[in-house]
Amino acid sequence: MRAFVATYAVKGTLEAVVTLLRKRRWKPVLRALFSRDSLQFATFVGGMVLLTSLGRAAMIKLRRKDDRWTSAAAGALGALAILLDTPARRQSLALYILVRAIYAGLHTIMRR
User: Fold this and answer.
1) Which of 45, 105, 106 is nearest to 72 (CA)?
2) Tell me, what DSSP letter sits at residue 34?
3) Which of 8, 60, 87, 91 is the most buried (most CB within 10 A)?
4) Which backbone phi and psi does 34 adopt, to 5 degrees?
5) CA–CA distance from 97 to each of 46, 80, 104 (Å)?
6) Residue 84 DSSP label
7) Contact between 59 and 84 (Cβ < 8 Å)
8) High-pLDDT (> 90) share of the chain, %
9) Is residue 74 within 8 Å of 52, Cβ to Cβ?
């Protein structure tokens, strides 16, 4: 819930500020603050955090240990939250997540 509220506040505020700077009127600013895009993006981030947390807790309870496989499975479950976002934004989010996954994998290999 915290992730949803924080994401919604940040995204909505950024959209409102950009709209205010562009149009210099208050009605479009209020529309931007409570936009569907902000709500949908916050739902995605909140869902990702929720699914990852629940997945990790469930895996720890089932496997009775907390290791890399538990984190990987929880992350894979959390990645399903991308289905909550718009199809237009999924590709760019998937690309960002792929780059972060490659970085994490290389970082893990280099630490050994």
Assistant:
1) 105
2) T
3) 8
4) -110, 40
5) 16, 12, 10
6) G
7) no
8) 12
9) yes
- Total residues belonging to the chain: 112
Residue 61 has what pLDDT? 92
Print the domain residue range for 92.
2-111
Mean pLDDT value of segment 48-67: 91
Burial call 81-106: b when 16+ CB within 10 Å, e when fewer? bbebbeeeeeeebeeeeeeeeeeeee
Domain count, the chain: 1
Closest listed residue to residue 27, CA positions, set 14, 16, 40: 16
2-54 pLDDT, tens digit per residue, is 888 888 888 888 888 888 888 777 778 878 778 888 888 888 888 889 999 99
pLDDT value at residue 50: 92
